[in-house]
Amino acid sequence: MFPVYLPVLILLIVASAVALGMFTATSLAGPKKPTPEKMLPYESGSNTTGASHLRMSVKFYLTAILFVVFDIEAVFLYPWASLFRELGWFGFVEMLLFLTILGVTLVYAWKKGALEWEK
Amino acid sequence: MDISGHILAALLKILFIIAVVVGAFAPMLVWAERRQSAMIQDRVGPRRAHIPLPRGVVGLFRASLKPMEAGVFLSFFAAGLAILTLVLMGLFGIETVAGQDAETFYLAVIGFGIAGVLLRLGHKLHKGIVDSGGKLALLGLLHPAADAVKMIFKEDFTPPKADKFLFSIAPIITVIPAIISFAVIPFADTLYLEYWDQVVPRDGEIIATAVPMQVASLNVGILFIFAAAGTGVIGAAVGGYASDNKFSLMGGIRAASQMVSYEVALGLTIVPCFMIYDSLRLEDMAAWQHEHGWWGFFIPPLTIASILYLFAAIAETKRIPFDVPEGESELVGGYLTEYSGMKFGMFFTGEFIEVVVLAALAVVLFFGGWDVPFLYRSGFDLPGTWELTVPMTEWVITDQFLLQHWAVLLIQVLFFLFKVVVLMWLQLMIRWTLPRFRYDQLMQLCWKGLLPLSLINILVTGILVLLWT
Questions:
Q1: Is B176 part of the contact surface with chain A (CB cutoff 8 Å)?
Q2: Span of A76-80, A96-100, B103-107 with lowest mean pLDDT
Q3: B102 in contact with A, Cβ within 8 Å
Q4: CB B466 within 8 Å of CB A86
Q5: Which residues in chain A touch residue B448, judged by CB atoms under 8 angstroms apart?
Q6: pLDDT higher than 80, residue B381
Q7: Which end is more exposed in chain B, N or C (fewer Cβ atoms within 10 Å of the end residue's Cβ)?
């Protein structure tokens, strides 16, 4: 029996070789002439103030949490969708219930303003 | 087939994919994007890169112009004469002219016609080279190559306060997943090794060594693409985080947030495909569309799914109009700000390859994959049953045209690549037509638009499929 993932491994090796080749080529061929000005973080010419690691809006964290919720939903949907015809109406109603609960989640997040970015 | 045969086949397919995608499609996209923007904005565009030809060769080209012009004229004149002869033969019922029958004159028309067109093209090429003073520019096609060489020799800069390891690894993480996503995309029907130079019977089981025309036939199928694409998020996020620059950090966080949001939407928009095709394997999906003679795009729920998919796919590649993570008017270059040289180029290579992957995936899911209308395993079979006899000859054209196995596969591969190119061109046109979205609009399009719509589409598809069967 031929291992089906072996070609993927070969492709991974080839892709890594391509990426590393590009990377090494530029590291070796590119000149390095650092000047004090060049070493500053680029901020369109104005002087840097404060640390570069600034605090980000909490919206990004909310998006990340919503992503976890809905990506797991997608993970649950995939096996259902591929066995959909065998499960028939029973499976459909079950999935309808599941999606309704998640729909309520989305509506709740929406009403709470988790999807608004202007404020 | 033994294991070394399998490995050899896998290597050949990988070579094909790398050559087509990295070697041809990505540079073609760069070229098309820059040339087309130049055409839209009425600029000359990037076409200065050229190979200078020695003066002697240019002299030869110049000397060849006149004879070629005469050759074009003579070829078309001869083809015209042959057509005239055929018409006269038909009108007066003459069997042979100068000892030649009508078949010879048909061949003459085709032969001289092709010769004339080829000479005309050659003349145009030579004239272009002579007019520009010996520069072989090839429509500016050399420019992507010149770009790559330039990027390799640019200063390779790492900000002193940056996290060196993460900063270096980010571009690599962007390129690798983009390439390996191709592992499960089928680009032709199964190859039956023993039937290589024979006509495969159209129906029934075939007992032969079957080689799937995709790198790996995995049972998880499309999930593999999402696993690989999900890894691509890390490249942009890590690159922005490691750069020690406010613009980079903001760009990286925007990129991560946008890509994960649209990954959810992308994953949900294509669920109706699994329900209709009843499989997660991409080769089964293409085969389903081939057997039913009906591309997914023309099945109503999938028409909606394909439009939603297109939105989500363009947003997932972070390209205009969804390029807020690198929007130059707000963030300089976003997570790319501190990158230079080929490291900068690698992010773009990854992005262009992702465009090709998503176009190829759309072709398999919605546009029949390698399916060519009226082409079956045994060859072409046009609708109806008919026969046409070419006047004055014994040649018969029928609705059936048998082809050898290799020719069928070759046509399928070429047609698949053609469809991919069309979809890539569509993405380019969108890029040059629409302005950039605001970040809040972008996120709301995903969470308030695509996500609920694709969920509703899944339910509607479910009801339709269950009512149907």
A1: yes
A2: B103-107
A3: no
A4: no
A5: 110, 115
A6: no
A7: C
